[in-house]
Amino acid sequence: xxxxxPFIFGIVLASAFFYFTTYxxxxxxxxxxxxxxxxxxxxxxxxxxxxxxEEQNNITVYRKNIxxxxxxxxxxxTFDFFYGTVPQEGQGSGFVIDKDGHILTNYHVIADxxxxxxxxxxxxxxxxxxxxxxxxxxxxxxxxxxxxxxxIVLGDSTNLxxxxxxxxxxxxxxxxxxxxxxIVSSIRQVQEPNGPIIEEAIQTDAAINPGNxxxxxxxxxxxxxxxxxxxxxxxxxxxxGIGFAIPINTAKAVxxxxxxxxxxxxxxxxxxxxxxxxxxxxxxxxAADYGLLIVQAVPGGSADRAGLRGGSERxxxxxxxxxxxxxxxxxxxxxxxxxxxxxxxxxxxxxxxDTVKVTxxxxxxxxxxxxxxxxxxxxx
Length: 380
Prior knowledge:
Blueprint: H1 4-23, H2 53-65, E1 69-80, E2 84-96, E3 102-105, H3 107-110, E4 115-119, E5 125-134, E6 139-143, E7 165-170, E8 178-191, E9 197-204, E10 216-218, E11 224-231, E12 243-247, H4 248-260, E13 267-268, E14 271-275, H5 278-284, E15 292-297, H6 302-306, E16 313-317, E17 320-324, E18 328-332, E19 335-336, H7 340-348, E20 355-362, E21 365-372, E22 374-375
Antiparallel strand pairs: 1-2, 1-4, 2-3, 3-6, 4-5, 5-6, 7-8, 7-10, 8-9, 9-12, 10-11, 11-12, 13-22, 14-15, 15-18, 16-17, 18-19, 18-20, 20-21
């Protein structure tokens, strides 16, 4: 007990000290050495500084285009084993292309939707109608009825250069009106997860996340050069610095068909071809060591009607029988054609009904032949 008395006495003294210095006054007191100044002096900037030229351009591009960029909500009915049909919502972006309320977006944003709703930047909501869709190019046009719409300016996606500055505007994760900045990282062919192949896709490091799909990719002047569509991710479905956009020229080539017909009249030359390399050219004694040799001109197709000729002599390419002796396509509209991919890229720039100049070798004679492109589904 004697040993405990000093311990108990110490507790009593500490309690008394806490009571009179802290608890009784209701708050902790500052030590006597800490004074209270009349005011707090902080370091402030001299004033709001002007934006530099890059910042000012970012602001200009955003303000110029944000009114044309929309949020798209699509509702799809799915079947649940326990509850029957259950509505599911998806979100994406799009942009107004004319004062009639036509909005360009990705096909996968509205695919299989039973209802589509558009929210403008001013937060007004409108029910939208699906006007036309093109799964092959992953493009769609929807329409709303609204006054005083601000159409966006469509630019040109030819001759894009790696390193040039780009901006993406959209609604990532439902966060409306978001601007991100980056550069053109590459121009390449890519395949989307749901199948479509994008020729000359624009790769960018501008942050693109779920919800950005269908939104515009803009150049330094604020003109649309692409439609943001997919990201390369590690499985977390978020930006990893590798995003892709559909070239705007691909969209411009089909917009009229989507609006007027609801589908795309995909153009075709109406030919079956094989690619030529220097070795084949030497074996066949061709006038050029590149191009596409016409094996068959589809009867009644575009090439056949224009007078282009398929092969007339049977031969074998490995174990595959082919017909040789036909015209050799080396260019279309002055652009060199070396592969079927080149031909597909050229067709993507046109629509059925357009006239193209096909440069061929017939034997050793070089000819330019005008060909009116037909519709692909009619020339199978």
